[in-house]
Amino acid sequence: ACRRAETEQVTKQSERSEVPDATPERSAELADQSREVLRILITAADAVPTLLPSSMTLPQLFGHGWYRHCVRVCEACLVLLDARMDHENAALRRSLLEHTTALIWLANSGQTAIDALQQHHQYGVRKLLDSFTGDGWPEVPSETTEMLGLKLPSSPEGFLLAFRPKLKEFGLEALESPWLIDSAVAHPSQRSASYFWKRTGDDSVTPVLDPVETDHLPTLAGNAQLLFLATIAVNELLDGGLAVPLAKAAEVLGTV
35 - beta bridge partners? Predict the structure, then answer.
């Protein structure tokens, strides 16, 4: 299973990367380091489908799906960053945080996590169908309605479906602050509006077109560390199939 010490080591490094008085030279060095880690892991991720056994388990199938999501989110964040739209990465970073912690849970709990997820999915399907009232709704696929008739096993880990309990369970408490900030930016809030106000010395506020300085986890450093954690988790599910690129990424990050 994913070892708590590994996750704590990487999240502590994540905290160090947020130091506000880093020199421009150190910031550039960290950016280059993070891009290299992302390059190594994104490239290696293309091999994951070939590493899955023909008789794959549900945890492996879910793990592939969530890991693929993490990889594509990191690729999309790089596109926005290079287009000078890093501020708009908030919703993507939030999703990456949530999928990474879910992968760690999956690697630790296996089928027990799947049981909790499927129960939650069944509940969500019921809510969705209950909302289909009135005319104009498309025909509901039969597999959707069939889901309601399944008798699913119970799971003692339903509480880990929520984000914060997973942070506490796996020693990831350092990720709560960036998650809260990105959540506020991704949703309509005072914080999301205030990035487009500029305060002047006389306490007046001027509207601006581009966001003022951000206070979130730097996209490059944060994403590199999160994808590294996600890769540790999926590597457990693949019985060590990504050990080589993980070792290369760890050497770049300085966690070995």
Answer: none
- 90: Cα separation from own chain's centroid: 11
Helix (H, G, I), strand (E, B) or coil at 206: strand
| Per-residue model confidence (pLDDT) at position 248 | 96
CA dist., res. 178 & res. 215, Å (int): 9
Tokens 């339903």 correspond to 158
- C-alpha to C-alpha distances, 234 to 48, 161, 179, 246, nearest whole angstrom: 9, 18, 22, 11
Ranges under pLDDT 70 in the chain: 1-22, 121, 123-154, 214-218, 255-256
- How many Cβ atoms sit within 10 Å of the Cβ of residue 196? 14
Among 1, 30, 36, which residue's Cα sits nearest to residue 18? 30
Report the alpha-carbon distance of residue 227 to residue 35 in Å, rounded. 12
Dist CA 115 CA 121 (whole Å): 10
CA 119 – CA 114 distance, rounded (Å): 9
Q: How far apart are CA 94 and CA 217, in angstroms?
A: 11
Picking from 189, 162, 176, the residue whose alpha carbon sits closest to that of residue 216 is 176
Find the helix or strand (DSSP H, E) in which 33 lies.
helix 24-45
pLDDT in tens, 232-250: 999 999 999 999 999 999 9
pTM over 0.85: no
List all residues 6 or more positions away from 39 whose beta carbon is below 8 Å from its beta carbon: none
Measured distance CA(100)–CA(85) in Å, rounded: 23
Distance CA 90, CA 126 (A): 30
- Tell me the C-alpha distance between 159 and 168, whole Å: 12
Q: 3-class DSSP state for residue 20?
A: coil
